[in-house]
Write a structure and sequence with these properties.
Helix content is 43%, strand content 15%. It has 657 residues and is of the alpha/beta class. It has 2 domains: 221 residues, no CATH class; 419 residues, Alkaline Phosphatase, subunit A (3-Layer(aba) Sandwich). Strands 3, 4, 5, 6, 9, 10, 11, 12 and 13 form a 9-stranded mixed β-sheet that branches. Strands 15-16-17-18-19 form a 5-stranded antiparallel β-sheet, covered by helices on one side. α2 runs antiparallel to α9.
Length: 657
Amino acid sequence: MNHDSTPEASGPSRRSLLLRLLYLHLALGALLRVVLWLWWKPGDLDLLGLGASLSLGVVRDVCIAPFLLAPAALCLGLAPVRWLARRGVLLALTTLVCFAVLFDAVAQACFFEEFTARYNHVAVDYVLYPHEVLVNLHESYPIPAILLLCGLAAFGLALRLVRQVPAPTALNVRRRAAWSGAWLSACVVGVLLLVALPARSFADRVADETAHNGHEQLWRAWLTAELDYTAYYATLPAEEAHARTARYTGLESELSPTASSFTLTKAIIPTIKPTRPLDVIVVVEESLGSDFSRAYGGTKAVTPRLDEWSQRGVMLSNLVANGNRTVRGLEGILCSFVPLPGDSITKRPATKDVATLAAIYQRCGYDTTFVYGGRGMFDTLEPFASANGWAEFVEQADMPEDAFYTAWGAADEWAFDVLVERQLRARASGRPLFASILTVSNHKPYLVPERDTGVAAKGANRDSAVAYADWSLGRWLDRCQQEGLLEHTVVLVVGDHGARVYGAESIPVGSYRIPAFFVSPEASLQGKRIDRLCSQVDLAPTLLSMSGIEARASFFGEDLLRLPPDGGGRAFVIHNRNVGLLTDEWMVVLGLQQEVAWWRRDSRASNALQQVPTAQVPSEVRELERDAMAIFQTADELYHVHGLTVHTAKSVATASN
C-alpha cells in the first residue's frame, strides 16, 4: 500500500507542531524585547511604552513567521510520511528549528549591543564579507560555548515540543498542494501587513528599534540599498533645488564638459601659499569618537597623544561625522560629499572619476597612495580608490609577515610604518605625496599588541584599543617630526565615526561627534581652534586651502579657514535611511515615504534633542526643510548624471609657478 497517497486521518499533528514552533518564535521575540528595553532604557521603566512595543512586536513577528518557518512547513508538508513517522527525524527537524530561533535571538542581542539597532544596512554589508565577519565573531565572542548552549537548549525544547504530537499521516497530492498554497498565502499576507505597518512607530529611536524585529529590518535594508531617492523622499522642482543648493553650499551651476546635463562646482582658493608643494597626509582613525578625549569634551583619558597634538595645530572642537559607518566617513572626508540613503558613494557601481582629494592632488603632480591594514576588497575600498585618483593601494597582503593581525588586518603601528616608508621615498624622489591611511585596530574584538600606552589593559576592551590606536598615532607623528617630514607636510587626523550609536533621536547626532585636527608647517595655523559646528564634508576644501591647492570641483563642504571660527555652522548626517541637516539649534530629518521630522536642542554643545511637531516650528526655521530637500536631492541627481567632477586643479606654491 502506498502510504503517501493515503488520505490524512489525523492531519492536525503537522499543524500542532507548527503552532508550537510559532509560539516559541513569539515567546522568544517578546522576551528579547523585554531584555532590550530593560538593557537600553534602564532609567525609563515606561510600562505603557513597553506594552506598546510588545504589542507591535507580536504583530511584526506573526507577519515574518511564515518566512522563518517555511523550511519546517515544507518538510512537514512535502516529505514522505515514512520519514516523518520516525520520531528521530521529527525530533531532529524540530531541534534544528529551535536552534535557529535561539541562535538568532542571541545574535540579535549581540548586534543590538554593538549598534543599538536591529539588523540593518550594516548587517547587509557584513553578509558580503564573510571572512572578516566570521573571524571577527570568533575573536569577539565565545562562539563554541554559544553554539553548545543553544544546541542543548534547542534539544531540550524539541523534546517538549514533539511530546504528544500525533504521528503524521500521509497527504495526497491535493492536500499537499493545499498545504503549500496556504503557506504561500500566509507569506503574501505577511508581506502586505509589513508594508502597511509604519516604518517608524515611536519618536524614541531605541523604543522603535525594540518594537521591530531583525528579519523585517534586514529585509527593508536589503530592498533600500539602491532605492530611487526621488520616489521615496520629499523633493522640490529641479530649478528651485539647484538654486537653493547653490545658495546654501556655494556650488555653482555650469555645463560639464564630460556630462550630458549639468554639474555643480565650487572654486577653492587657498589661504596658504607655500614656497614649495607640500606633502599631504589624511589619517582616518577607526571608530574614534570625541567621548574618548578630554580635549574634545569626553570624560575618558585614553587619548593623551591625540590631545597633545591637537593643541599644536588647528583643532576642530565641534565636528560631526556623516554617519556611523566607515564608508560614510570616507565619502565625507575624501569626497566632500553629503550622505545619501542606500549605499555610500564609495560603494556604488557608477562611482568612477568622481571628485576626490586624490584626483585633485594627482592633477597637481602628486604621487597618491592609500594605506589600509585590511583587505582592499572590504567595502570595495581598493576598487573605489583605484578608480578615483589613488595610483597605489597598500593593503594587508603588503604588510610585513611579522605584523600583529586580527580579523580586520594589520595593527596600526605597522600600517603607519608602511606610510613612513612612502613619505621618505617621496622626499628622496623630490615628488610631492598625497597619502591617506585608514586604521583598523580600534575595532571589535579590540585585540592589540601590548604596548606602554599608559592605560591598564584588562583583556580585550574598547578603551585599551583606543589607547593603542592613540599610541600608534603619536608614535608616527613623533617619527615624522624627528625625520623632518612635518616641515613640509600638512596632516589631517580625523575619526571616521563615533564608537557606538546612542540616543533616542531618529539620527542620534550626539554619538556622531568626532575629534579632528590639522598639523601644518604654517606658523599662523599652529595653536588655532575652530569651535563652529562643522561637517566631515568641510575637511577636503580646508585641506586644499592649507596645502596651497587651487581647484574647482564638486565639493559640498566649505573652507573653514575662510569662516568665523566661532560662528553658526551646520552638518549633513545620516542614520539607516534617514538623512538630515543639523544646525546649532535645529535638525530637520528627511525619511522614507516623504516624511519630515524636526528636532531641537539648546545649543551646539548639547547632545540632547527633543522632537518638535512641525506645526510648532517657527516659520523662519522652516526654510531649513527646503534647503535640506534641495541639497540631498541635488546630490543624488549629480551622482546619477556623473556630474561629480574635478574641473581644474593646480598648486599655487611659489616654487611651482
